[in-house]
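Protocol step 4 of 6: structure prediction from sequence.
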Amino acid sequence: MEGKMDALMKMIQDSEARMSREMGSIKLAVDDIKPDIITLQGSVSRLQPEMEQIKATFEAWRPEMEAKVVGLGDAVKDLRRQVDHIAKGVGAGALGRPPSAAPPSMSPSPSSAPSGAHSGQLGLGKEHLTGVVVVTDSPPSLPTPVTGQTTNLSMVPFDPGASATRVPLGNPPPHSDFPKFDGDNPRLWKKACEKYFRVYSVSTEFWVEHATMHFTGNAALWFQSAEDKIGEVTWSELCEIIYTRFDRGQYQMLYRQAFKIRQIGSVSDYIERFDTLMHHMLAYKPDLDPTFFTTRFIDGLHNEIKVVVLIQQPQSLETAVSLALLQEEIRDECYQPSSSSKSVSFVRVNSKALAPLSTVNTSNFKQRVLNPGDDKKGHEQSRQAIGSRKFAALKNYNQGEDETDQELHALSQQAMGGTENSTCFRLQGVIQGQEVLMLIDSGSTGNFISDSLASLLQGVQPMHSPVRVKVANGEILTGTSLIPNCEWHCQGATFNTTMKVIPLQCYDVILGIDWLKAQSPMEVDWNCKWIAVKQGSSRKGYLV
């Protein structure tokens, strides 16, 4: 027990000795830094008056700066309101006196301001500005009517901030109508809307409401029923919804048209139709290979032009277009009659017009023409007889042509060109599992199906006699087969229509006036693009 106590006492003595040594070390360190502390205290004592002076200066300056900041904020709000008026076409003349309370440090003196920066017929909505927003440092006052006098104005930089993109200030842009949307070309409509928003500095929060206010036709009817389901959406989300609804299968249809388009008139007409198709496709896929368009353009040319263009191996679409136009010009010049044959008359005749000419006895006429000794009277009688025979032949020819035209079917320019107007509208249908693009066209007289689609279907039968179809540009198309009672489906309804097979380029099926008569009585709204036909004992509407 005593041994343990001795060990404990020794441990305590050792700890006390160690602590004494550490305290001595600390004391020495404090003694070393004590002069530095005394020096620092002296420096703080010397800086104390300066710090008090700085604090007093700041306290005196602070209220003045806060007042200037508040005034600047009010001026910016007023300027933003004025810029919105300018963007809407009100004109700078309705703005009144420029806002005040701008900080002096931000405005040059009046002597440095440009003279005549604010002039024109003030109050009429037309102003000539220098392209900047102007602010003066005059005392605050209520806006007053502008009198048209020249005012020296100072310039400050300004950014509206409320608009997605800044529009350079100056004369307001000319008025233009907002692009309307009826369901066609949604991508083109989107770009036109965004351009309008940039020009007129429309805030992004109003884009959706402003755009949907200008829906028309089928798009307006669709949005009326879908608005509650859509809810509040952003501009990008609205565009995606529109693409889903109105852009279904458009690119696939355009791609098919690229393989069907053919020259049916002049090269210029073909170039115009091909250019429209090409830019529609590029709107969906801007990175399409240019060689694709060059190849498709050449393949659609008339054979006599295509052969010459292919030999030249054009490396670009522009070169192929130039070669096609040049070849057409050379071909037309080669087929023009020479000047020595101007007196010869060329008359188109058919079999019905030839019969009267075959029974005419022309032996006397030949004898008189070959005999140079005939008198003038006999020659005149011969000319009268020839004129009578020509008139009779022409009369019979016209009658035969009229009868022939009555046997022709008609096909509108919209059906051949892939366009749409107020007398026709499009449908998406299904035939034997194939998605087809259909055109209900009151300007066509028959029901037709394209030969390329018919080659994929069953039930094609030859006709007893070929059918002849006259296009609006005068071209005659011929078909030799048909699909009797072809079953097709559209929006839940089923129809059976006999369709004649002809070469179509843009549409898969054309439903003409024959189909419209067969569905009568019915309801049609050509403006809103819908048709209601009777299915059994009920009526059902189909929106396009």
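Step 5 (inspection) to follow. The CA atoms of residues 107 and 154 lie 6 Å apart.
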